Fold this protein.
Amino acid sequence: MMWNAVRANAVFLFSILLAVAMLLLCMPLSGWGMDWVKHGTPGYWRLYVAHLDFLFSRTPGNINLLAYERPPLAAGQYWRVVTGHLIHLNVHHALMNGAGLVMLGLYFRRDFSLLAWVGLIVLSCFTISAGLWWGQPQLIAYVGFSGVLHALLYAGIIRTWKEMPAINAVVLALLLGRLVWEHSAAYNPAYLMGWIHGLVAPAAHFYGAITGLVWGLVSVWWRPVVRPAPAEPA
């Protein structure tokens, strides 16, 4: 019975584990976000968030071993295609994206198999990185999970369309409107600078959205051909 409950909520549980892993990547050994410092009454330790300098002010190649960065990628460090989406500028950044992942995992836990959920995450890491590489050559470095979140959200909307067509149509229209706004002159990519200490990358959201839409349409409309069983002789 316990195993059945775990299987039924596998997508949600995996999302929690991945969100925790992304947060742990902000610990001191990663060089990204957290320092344990002694403060106040002797014997007590408090956790402080050490905000990072603005990502693009750092020297390319020295940001992080896992970040998406063009020079190391060109040198053959291909793991960055995936790992760059799992690390963040600081704890605030990781908490924002981790919370989004957990909420999506909870909401869509019945609509995706674990294999499909993990597969879409991995696929979107590759497609977003490919989009940034060929479509945004001026972008030297990128980190964060928000592009992947867009892929999961768009795919989930398409996948649950038949159950809630009116609601999903409104949500999709709002999301597409926001995507257009992010690519307009009215959008300020620095609006979260005080929170995440970096610029938002709308291009990652765009490539994630395209990945999710395509994946969702394919998963909904493609059906394997099931041949009828031969009739039994009378």
The chain has one domain: 13-221. The CA atoms of residues 24 and 122 lie 19 Å apart.
